[in-house]
Amino acid sequence: MRPYGWRRALLAGMAALLTANSDAPPVDYAAERAAIGRYQDADQRLQNVGWQLARGNIAFCPRVIPAIGLQLQDMASYGAPAIARVALGLTGDFAVQTAARGSPAAQSGAFTRNREIIGLAGFDPNQWPAGEKMDWQRLVWAHDHVDAMLAEHAGIAVTFADGEEARLTPVEVCATRFELMGAGGKAVADGNRVVIGIDFPAFAYPEEDVFAALVAHELAHNFLEHDAWLDRNGRSRRHVRRTEREADRLIPWLLANAGYDPQAGVTFMTRWGSRHDAGWLMLRNHDGWDERAEFIAAELPQIADLMAREGRADWRARFRREIDPAKGLAAGPRE
Ligand SMILES: [Zn+2]
Q1: Which one, of 108, 64, 78, lies nearest residue 223 by Cα?
Q2: How far is ligand 1, taken at its centre, from the CA of residue 214, in Å?
Q3: What is the structure's pLDDT at 15?
Q4: Rounded to an integer, what distance in angstroms lies between the CA atom of residue 278 and that of residue 227?
Q5: Residue 11 DSSP SS3
Q6: Ion ligand 1 contact residues with beta carbon within 5 A
Q7: CA of 217 to the centre of ligand 1 (A)
Q8: What is the CATH number of domain 5-174?
Q9: Where are the domains of the chain?
Q10: Ligand 1 centre distance from Cα of residue 174 (Å)
Q11: Which residue numbers in the chain have pLDDT < 70?
């Protein structure tokens, strides 16, 4: 396991909005609610795009899980849970954060933003212990619990605080969680998650497919299992550069399978790279942005040909690797 310092950064961002101080002027709950709303808008965009990419590539990604596209929020994860509760009009701590567009949660119509939740397959997550503030662990448990119920029971019943219940049947998606960091402009893929800071410039891009190119780059790291490969083989500059190049080149394949314009990968790299090249990881680990855009563009004819002939871009079979994915794996049978 690697340390999750970014989780603290995520919560510190919200904590700055929600400080409880007896000497401070009265809390402006409308402003707090608006601030949370802007964070939720960005999260909704990330979840919509993440869902579409993770759903569109199920035929090729290394691990597929049943999912409903529901993301929760836990007041305990805020810097001042009591203020957040009042701002959102909640009695308890758990509520809907987002339902990804097109997901079973969204299609049910029941999972409106900030709707309070008191039951996940019979368990009330509010009953689980939580720290006083900035406790992110309980929210991870809740999502783990939902995933486990979906895997074991092929469905889940969610109970709302108003007494209504929604029963959802999952669909398959590629196994990655998408998380918005409340502060900072970094983008990270750790094998299981794609984490993007709210200040990443692509959040301001109006075209969804250009924003999706950023998410696709990070998702490509997980699909190609780069984090584990680098753990096994070392994070030399050469190794990092090769994995980055693979992630760039896979962008248009992932976009095409998800129904986005694969050309948006080139647009993204050109727009972002020409302004922010030095900000994304360390420059020395990457090719220059113009070379990166060219590498992405070089994939487009093959993708167009595959889409025309097969209706999908089978990157598991056709994508040219720049690393040996099996390198560093034990040769013999493993226990
Ligand atoms: Zn990368």
Answers
A1: 64
A2: 9
A3: 46
A4: 22
A5: helix
A6: 244, 247
A7: 6
A8: 2.30.42.10
A9: 5-174, 200-318
A10: 19
A11: 1-24, 277-286, 331-335
Tens digit of each residue's pLDDT (9 = 90 or more) over 174-225: 999 999 998 898 999 999 999 999 999 999 999 999 999 999 999 999 999 9
Compute, in angstroms, the gap from residue 190 CA to the centroid of ligand 1: 10
Measured in angstroms, how far is the CA atom of residue 72 from the centroid of ligand 1? 27
CA of 244 to the centre of ligand 1 (A): 5
Total Cβ atoms within 10 A of residue 334? 6
Q: Please report the pLDDT score of residue 60 as a whole number.
A: 98
Rounded to the nearest angstrom, the distance between the alpha carbon of 236 and the centre of ligand 1 is: 14
Query: 211 CA distance to ligand 1 centroid (A)?
Result: 15
Residue 200 alpha carbon to ligand 1 centre in Å: 14
* C-alpha 279 – ligand 1 centre gap (Å): 12
Ordered DSSP codes for 53-103: HHHHTTTTSS-EEEE--EEEEEGGGSSSHHHHHHHHT-SSSEEEEEE-TTS
Angle at 144 between CA 137 and CA 130, to 5 degrees: 25
Question: Which long-range CB contacts under 8 A does 170-173 form with residues at least 24 apart?
Answer: 170/66, 170/67, 170/68, 170/104, 171/55, 171/66, 171/67, 171/68, 171/103, 171/104, 172/55, 172/58, 172/64, 172/65, 172/66, 172/67, 173/51, 173/54, 173/55, 173/58, 173/64, 173/65, 173/67, 173/69
